[in-house]
Design brief:
heterodimer, A: about 400 residues, mainly alpha, two-stranded antiparallel sheet, 16 helices, about 75% helix, globular, B: about 525 residues, alpha/beta, 6-stranded mixed sheet, 18 helices
């Protein structure tokens, strides 16, 4: 889609290599973070004599990243608009104890022999609580003009109190059948292969559809070889992942949930007005306002979305741990913020991707798992994570300056 | 006052890509005088001040500046150094920390220290002495936030003097002051002169040159026109020096016949929404015909931008008057509403208000009109791309592709993206606030051609411009504003630079019989 009328524009070099090089330079941030992830994996694989890449460990690694990943996805939207949400960890924690409370105390008496219905009701209530809290915080931030930092800091305290009220300081079990499947279940291998097949088919279909559409509108087509290589690469990634986790117990239910959520949210970020407005508001609030964007409403909706995702994270958390505790969700907000930022979300707003946040989250959980496997004391785990976060952002600043 | 030259600016030339901001400028400033600097917006005054204050360091310009007998050699990042040398600027936008006291502000960054802690008594005593010496009536312990603009200016001056400034540059010091505050400032300046402080005084209000300055240098298009003792000048002479140039063939002229009246503003009054006691519009009336380009002229602070943003529903709180579009009275609630009613605004500040710099050309063009391409949820990416490509082609945006970030484009191309964005909604009324500011001649010409095309197709255009040539070259009629009021609307045949400048500087009565 060249619209160039500039005779002095440098003639782009052709060929796959040159195209790859160009793409690398324009997306240096994404590639840097992926390279960092690969480097961390290789390091751990060597240090653990390959145990890091065992099917069981890979399966657990991805399962462990799910709770904070849901939060990190929402956090991308929040930070992109130039806001912050410090309450998400405690909100997920609160949702988890509420779900546990209903599982353990309420349904047990109301509908004693219907574990499936009980699980569904728990999910609805949990997610509902998340959304409601999002509505409350979003309203205060967007319409009453209280800074998000303050509102969500207050929200964190409030939720901490609510958690103590619900649990009465005790641990509530949430390990009932069906409910535990949410975060602990696996798909049978065949189902895994069917999903992989669908995803691969979609990748190719989407590639050709977009080429056809571009050709129809008379736009210049991107290099076919490069597009094919990219599509094949992602297909192999999906097939390889399914093959590997099938060696253990199959695709993990929460990972599937996360993947679906991530795909939807990535689509929303780029292909809906809601998503575009979020980036415009964070990129230049004044330009967004003069473009007729309702900034209050957008920010209100962003916090409701954050509440919804916190609700989902809370349900997965309750199911994953198997009980609701007073410490549920403690510190998750910081992991979520770190993941988003590692993944290239700018704290100044306007920039960030869902995909990046997932990679960031994967780095965080790879560090945790790898360091645990090496029997590194928790104190050192924190030191390493903190160092990696600052180093990664410095690398980004450095590359941008020297591009 | 002696003939001792404190600052000798010799043949200074400063180029930017595509623009020569200063072209062989020479000015001599004598010790102890108040030297006025006069010129239209864009004549090169602020570039010159930025060189003197070290924003553009030594070596980035040609020519030489002899200060106190030595070449002024300011290194990179030398704003501090300029102050140390004794050159201080009191900026238009005040640069004080509002929550601190007067004393803290005056000594900010150079607090007197006694054994590692700040010596507060000395700080306030010294502040008091400076304020007393120059008869600045401010309390050292007052919180700056609670002071009026006039007093804040005194604090700025005290701050500059506390650094032993030898040359004090005042950049439009009176633009936000009331009449009595201005009188007070004039007294202060006279007192400074009696203490031997040299001042460079920049203003748009011509009468002030006659009240306070000893000599005046006039700049035009980056060149020095003349330097003369003030007593040899008159306002008429000043105006003719400011604008006295030949019109070059820089404006494409199109044959067009404006049609019926499309848009009409009658006695519009509005106040600052954050400070409702401050009037920003005090009686503006004009009309706009179909396919007409109406120029709005006026100096900075005359309310031009406030007028158009108020019409667009995004700034002033309307307290009186009416706005009519196609005969029907309008009340516009905001940008979206204005767009739905057929009004677009290309805002004044391209980077600050027009564009999301880190985003692509595509996303910038479609931002204000995403509802054209989307149903309930999904944006039709193909339709968006097709429409944005059509716009980019129509405006000849020069870029490798639409995925390029707008921050990588030149100013002229960025402006084309902004215009493309605002044309996407097919407006009936297109308001352009200083559409060619800071862009090169070639891109300007393309924008002028585009404006003519639009007008021929029946779009009515309101163009604010700081360049008189542009206003005269492009408009069918010119409305001149002064202090929030529309003074007169001139037909292009009866408009000339002197008349517009006279109306804009508020000396209408002497030059233009009403």
């Amino acid at each position: 889609m060249a619209v160039s009328t500039n005779v002095n524009a440098p003639k782009p070099a052709s060929g796959l290599g040159a195209e790859l090089g160009r793409r690398f330079r324009s997306n240096i941030q994404t590639y840097t973070i992926i390279l960092a992830l690969v480097a961390i994996w290789i390091l751990f694989a060597v240090l653990t004599n390959g145990a890091f890449f065992s099917a069981q460990n890979v399966s657990n690694l991805f399962r462990q990243m799910t709770v904070t990943s849901f939060l990190a996805i929402g956090m991308v939207f929040v930070i992109v608009t130039g806001n912050i949400d410090l309450s998400v960890g405690k909100l997920a924690g609160f949702v988890s104890v509420v779900a546990a409370y209903f599982q353990a105390n309420v349904w047990y008496q109301m509908i004693p022999d219907q574990p499936l219905l009980a699980a569904i009701l728990s999910i609805i209530i949990g997610v509902g609580v998340g959304v409601l809290f999002g509505v409350l915080q979003g309203y205060i931030i967007a319409y009453l003009n209280v800074p998000a930092f303050i509102v969500t800091l207050g929200g964190m305290f409030v939720l901490n109190g609510l958690i103590l009220l619900v649990t009465q300081g005790k641990t509530i079990p949430a390990n009932q059948p069906y409910f535990s499947e949410i975060a602990q279940g696996y798909l049978p291998p065949l189902a895994g292969w069917i999903i992989a097949g669908i995803v691969v088919a979609f990748l190719f279909w989407n590639m050709f559809r977009s080429r056809r559409s571009r050709a129809r509108h008379g736009f210049e087509l991107p290099n076919l070889a490069l597009e094919l290589v990219t599509t094949i690469f992602f297909s192999l990634l999906v097939i390889g992942y399914v093959y590997w986790v099938n060696q253990y117990r199959g695709i993990q239910t929460p990972v599937l949930l996360l993947a679906i959520t991530a795909i939807i949210m990535a689509y929303v970020s780029n292909n809906t007005r809601f998503g575009r407005y979020a980036y415009a508001i964070g990129g230049n609030r004044e330009a967004a306002r003069l473009s007729g964007i309702n900034i209050r409403r957008s920010i209100f909706l962003i916090f409701i979305l954050m509440g919804l995702l916190s609700g989902i994270a809370g349900i997965v958390l309750a199911s994953y741990v198997g009980y609701g505790t007073t410490a549920a969700g403690q510190g998750y907000e910081l992991d979520a913020i770190a993941s988003a930022i590692l993944g290239g979300t700018s704290t100044l707003g306007g920039v960030g991707t869902v995909f990046g946040a997932l990679i960031g989250s994967l780095i965080m959980s790879s560090l945790t798992t790898g360091l645990q496997m090496l029997n590194v004391a928790p104190a050192w785990q924190y030191l390493v994570k903190g160092g990696v976060l600052v180093l990664a952002v410095y690398a980004d600043v450095y590359f941008k300056r020297n591009r | 006052m002696s003939d001792d030259i404190i600052l000798d600016i010799q043949n200074v030339t400063k180029r930017f890509p595509g623009v020569t901001a200063l072209d062989n400028v020479s000015i001599q400033i004598r010790r102890g005088e108040i030297h006025g600097l006069c010129g239209e917006n864009g004549a090169g005054k602020s570039t010159l001040m930025k060189i003197l204050s070290g924003v553009y360091p030594f070596g980035t310009y040609e020519g030489s500046i002899i200060y106190e007998g030595k070449e002024l050699n300011l290194g990179v990042g030398a704003i501090r150094q300029a102050r140390d040398e004794g050159i201080a600027i009191v900026y238009q936008e005040l640069t004080l920390v509002p929550h601190m006291t007067v004393g803290e502000n005056v000594y900010l960054g150079k607090e007197p220290v006694e054994r590692g802690t700040i010596d507060w008594s000395k700080l306030y005593a010294d502040t008091r002495d400076i304020l007393a010496k120059y008869r600045l009536e401010v309390t050292p312990q007052a919180i700056v936030r609670h002071l009026g603009v006039g007093k804040m200016q005194m604090v700025e001056i005290a701050k500059a003097l506390s650094e032993n400034a030898k040359i004090l540059i005042l950049d439009e010091p009176t633009s936000a002051l009331t009449e009595s505050e201005i009188n007070k400032l004039m007294e202060i300046l006279e007192n400074l002169r009696s203490h031997g402080v040299t001042c460079i005084y920049i203003t748009h209000k011509l009468d002030e040159f006659f009240r306070i300055t000893d000599s005046v240098t006039i700049l035009r298009d980056g060149k020095t026109v003349t330097t003369q003792p003030t007593r040899q000048l008159t306002q008429e002479k000043l105006v003719s020096y400011m604008v006295g140039r030949e019109m070059k063939e820089r404006f494409p002229r199109s044959q067009r016949r404006p049609g019926e009246v499309m848009f009409e503003v009658t006695d519009l009054q509005a106040v600052d929404p954050d400070e409702t006691s401050r009037k920003v519009l005090d009686g503006v009336s004009f009309n706009l015909r179909r396919g007409e380009i109406l120029g709005i002229a006026g100096l900075m602070g005359s309310g031009r931008t406030e007028l158009v943003t108020t019409i667009f529903g995004e700034y002033g709180k309307i307290t009186g008057g009416t706005i009519k579009l196609e005969g029907r009275e309008l009340s516009i609630t905001g940008a979206r509403d204005a767009m739905h009613k057929g009004i677009s605004l290309v805002p004044e500040d391209r980077k600050g208000q027009g564009l999301v710099l880190m985003q692509s050309i595509l996303k910038n063009i479609s931002l204000a009109n995403l509802d054209q391409f989307s149903g309930f949820m999904r944006i039709d990416g193909d339709a968006e791309l097709v429409a944005a490509t059509r716009q980019a082609k129509a405006l000849a945006v020069k870029a490798p592709n639409l995925e390029a970030r707008v921050e990588s484009l030149s100013g002229g191309n960025q402006q084309k993206v902004v215009i493309a964005k605002w044309l996407l909604s097919n407006p009936k009324i297109l308001i352009m606030d200083d559409p060619t500011r800071g862009i090169d001649v070639g891109a300007k010409y393309e924008i002028y051609k585009l404006m003519n095309d639009l007008a021929e197709r029946g779009v009515s255009i309101i163009m604010i411009s700081s360049e008189l040539e542009e206003v005269l070259g492009m408009s069918d009629r010119v409305m001149v504003m002064h202090e929030g009021r529309s003074t007169r609307t001139l037909d292009i045949a009866e408009a000339n630079q002197e008349r517009i400048m006279a109306l804009a500087t508020g000396i209408a009565d002497e030059l233009v019989p009403a």
